[in-house]
Amino acid sequence: MTATTFITYIALIGIGATLVMDLWTLLLKRLGMATLNYAMVGRWAGHLLQGRVYHPAIAKAAPVRHELAWGWALHYATGLLFAALLVGLAGEGWLRTPSLLPALGFGLASVLVPLCVVQPAFGAGLFANNTPTPLRNCLRSLATHGVFGLGLYLSALGLSVS
């Protein structure tokens, strides 16, 4: 497989998996459940560029120009990065014959990023402990990242190379 093909497959897997995750969160939103507002991701990134990592409550921080667009771009960039990490860990052979377990396991493990980095930086605390329902929030994040892992597998399966 050429380097260009390899990179293209990783990009398509990352985009596909992130899209599957977005469809899941859209379903949750339609069922009346709160989901992440990606403008807050963009707001945090904008403040991060100015040297501020932690916020007591990101929603109360000063808005950043184009924060929603930045948030969505970072969301998909993270999906691409996670796809690259999965393929790096599982190896090129996984692209040829994708299997569910590595993708699902990686998706579930990826929940540590929001629970241990993003949520504390937003003011929600480690493992959402500053929220009214930490366990529910952690389980919802775990389910969403499990869906992302399923999306990694389904995207790779759809692209299976021989």
Task: Write structural notes for this entry.
- The chain is an all-alpha fold.
- The chain has one domain (3-159).
- It contains seven helices and no strands.
- The chain has helices spanning 3-30, 38-48, 67-90, 92-96, 100-109, 112-122, 134-159.
- Helix 1 (3-30) packs across helix 3 and helix 5 packs antiparallel against helix 7.
- The chain is globular, with a radius of gyration of 16 Å.
- The relative contact order is 0.18.
Short description:
The chain is mainly alpha-helical. The chain contains 7 helices and no strands.
Walk me through the topology.
Layout: H1 3-30, H2 38-48, H3 67-90, H4 92-96, H5 100-109, H6 112-122, H7 134-159
Helix pairs in contact: 1-3, 1-7, 2-3, 5-7
Structural class: mainly alpha
Rounded Rg: 16 Å
Q: What kind of oligomer do you see?
A: single chain
Please give the count of helices.
7
Query: What string, H for helix and E for strand, traces the elements in order?
Result: HHHHHHH
Q: How many structural domains does the protein architecture include?
A: 1
Backbone shape: globular
SS elements, strand count: 0
The helix content, as a percent range, equals over 70%
* Unreliable runs: none
- Measured between the Cα atoms of the first and last residue, the distance is 10 Å
Q: pLDDT average, as an integer? A: 95
Largest sheet geometry: none
Give the amount of beta strand, in percent. under 5%
